[in-house]
Every structure is written in C-alpha cells, then in structure tokens.
Amino acid sequence: MRYVVLAVTVALAAWSLRQPAVGLVAALPLMYMINPTPTTVGWREFGFAITITVAGLSSIWRHRSMLAGLPRAGCIWLSIVTGWFVLNFFTAFWNGVSVADWVRGAAPFVFMSYFLPIWLEARANRVFAHGWQWAAGIAAALFSWHVVQVYVGEQLWRPATYIFDNGTWISMGYAEAQALGKQVFEFAIRVTQRLQQATDTLLCLGVVWGAWASLWLSNWLLRMLGLGLSILATTAIVLTYTRSMLLSSFLVALVLMLVAIRRGGAKRVVVLFLALVATGAGTITGFNLEAIYLNRLVQMQEQASVSFDASPNQGKEGMAASSVDGSIASLRAPTPLQSAMPGKMEGQPKDANIASRMEEYRIAWDHFRASPLVGHGLGVQHNIRFDAGNGEWLDTRVGYVHNWVMYVLMTGGLLGLGVYAAVLFGPAVLAWRRCPRESGLPELTFATVAVMAVYGLFFAVFRLIPFNLVLGGMWGLLLGVQREHARG
Hints:
Elements: H1 2-18, H2 20-30, H3 43-62, H4 72-94, H5 99-110, H6 115-124, H7 127-153, E1 160-165, E2 168-171, H8 174-179, E3 184-187, H9 191-194, H10 201-216, H11 220-240, H12 243-262, H13 266-286, H14 290-298, H15 316-323, H16 352-370, E4 382-387, E5 393-398, H17 404-434, H18 441-455, H19 465-487
Antiparallel strand pairs: 1-2, 1-3, 4-5
C-alpha cells in the first residue's frame, strides 16, 4: 500500500509543479485517506502533506506577479490573522505554554493559508472554481460513503456480546460466556468509535451542498447528483446517531428550502424534503434503529450509561436501546465500549457526554475570566474528567474545548473571538455583498458557514484539517470571484 501512496504522491507532486491547480483540487478528495486528527505521520499523511505543499508553493511562484493584486479584503484578512498569531504566541509564552504545545495548537489553523493559492488559481482561471467545487462535493461523498461502508461492513447495528473480567471488556460468543459462568452484556457499538471521519464536518456539508445543488442548479443531471449527495450524507449522519450533526445539517437545509420557496422553487423543495425524510426514516427502520433514536431523545434526561443482563430472549431493539450511548464518552477510554459498564457511582451525571461538555465550558470560562482580552494562548492545556466507563471518571489533560466560542475565548480572549468570528463569517458577508444573487453563491456560502458555525458549537471540528481547508478555500474562491466581477 505504501508503494501505491508513494507513486500517487510523486505523480501528483510532479503534475502540480506544472499545473498547481491539479494538486490544489486533489487535496480535498485526498483528505479521505488520512485521519482528520493524525497523531503520527504515515505514508498517507506524508503524501497529503507533500501534495498540498508542492501545489501551494508552485502556484504562488508561478503567479507571484499577481500577488500585488490581492484585494483589500484579502490584505486586511491576512494582516489581521498574521498579527493575531504573533500576539498569541507571546501571550502563550507569557502564560507558560511551551513552544511545542503552541505549535500543536496553531498547526490546524495553518491550513487556512490554503486561501492564497486558491485565490491565485481562481483569478488566473475561472474554470478552477468549478473544479474546486466538484472536488469538495467528491470529498463529502467519499467521507459519507466511508461511514456507510464501515457501518454496514461491520454490522454495527447488531449488538456485540462482552463479559467484564478483571476490569477488562472481552468480546466472545454468548454460549461461550455462559459456559464460563460470567455475566453477559450486549452493546451496540457506534461507528464514531470505529472511524474518525464519522464526526467530520464534511458529512454535514454534504447534506447542505447537495440540497443547494438540487434547489438552485438548472441542469437536471447536476440537480440529481446533488440530491444523491444529500441522500448519501443523510444516511451516513443517521448511522452515527449524532444529535449535533442532525441538528446543524438539517436546520440549515430547512433554511435553504424556505429561501427556495420564496424564489418559486416549491416543487424542488417538495422533492428534496420528501427524499431526506424518506432517507432518514428508511435508514432508521431498515436497520431497526427506532429504539436507539428513542433512547437518544431521552438521553438528555436519563442516565447515559446503562448496563443489564442479557438473555437469549431479549430483542435486538431492547438491547440497543439500553446500551447505545456506551460510546459517547471520550475515545481516550481504554476499553472498547467506554461506558455502559457496571458499577456506576452514585450521583453520576445522567448524560456523561453533556456533563463533560459542561465541565469543559466551566474551565474555558475560568481561563477567559483570568485573561479576558487576549486569553492564555493556543496550546494551553487543562485537566478534564471523562467517563472512563467502569464506574469511574478519568482525568485527562487536553488542549481543546468542544465549542469554538469557548475555545477561542480561552485561547485568544475577546480579541481572538473578534478575529476568528471575522474569519469564519467573512465569506458569507463577502459573498452577499459581491456575488450576483442569481448565481446562488450567497446562499451556498451562507449554508456552508452556518453548518460549520453551528456544528462547531458541539464538536472540536474547527481544529481539524477538512474544516480549515474548506474555510480557506472559500476565502480564496470568493476573493477570486470578487475580482472577476470587478473586472467584468
């Protein structure tokens, strides 16, 4: 496999030296090969890094004469962000954050610099923007397909049988466990435990990008492709059982539908709405997930981790309903299930997931109150208690918060929040002011930014590579589109 990756990397890098646009477009689908949060640099990560670096530097070198024409909005954006990073580095140093920790905290945001070669290529070739949009859609489809493939391939809708022996979960058949005289537990494992990509923003973006295409594009074939992407991404999200993904993607899709109705696209809205509802309902009933989703609805009020004795007469739905949230605790837990284990403590929070989030917010708020203007710097770490799953809570040292507002307040203070909000919402403002209404680009940009902003309130996706590549790509394309319209 490494030789295949090496061969593809060499071919793309060589091609990107002559045609940088190829590597910049290929970077999005190539994200499918790597984990969104790689802990080590393997052959796949190395190939991705080489491809995007060669393509970016080659584009800047080939079009260096155009750099002086960077629009004022781009110059202001680049100056403010660069200045803030410099200030944040000294802030972190002042607060005792090591250089290594600061670099780890800042590294994900470096991918936003992708905007510069994207802008250069978009300005040099108007066709490039369409190629990048196609690549983004393909990346969303690949991520969604991967989730469905893992879920179906590993039959994750079927509860797995375990015994709890000497503090360790051991998977074995029911008859074998009974023969050992051990208590038997059955749990439904979530695909988010098996696959990092299962919680990536691209799944949510796939829903709204496909919805936009099916509502705004005039070509029938492209509308059908958009509808197919939206259906595929919806299927993947439903199979993750993730509430925040459902909320962010379908809330924004609903807004797009309302806007389309006002513009006379009621028939297209009906088709899209019925397709998404049928997809969600069909996926839930097809895999017998009714009890799981019912349990997800009441998890806000009930204990998140429930264990029980399994018996041969228990139905699949009952077992899944009692154990589905055995996966919502931190992936750092050393067991395969992480929660839904015996021996729960008295007074344990009823939803371990929400409890850990509230603890994160409290810690972040305390950091903000201690330094409200500039924060404590990227890379600042804190101890957080996660449900270890065996009736105990595990103290873990981390450098992130699952909420972009609280994270930026903790690391950058009010100044950082203002800078990051401008970076995150800037594309929507730019598209609304500069792009023609008939193009549909304002609605597409709004939908993209809205999904990223809402979903980022629940997951730390703003620290992942796909999130920052998409954000940087939007800035680059819109600055390029702005330039084209100014010339036209």
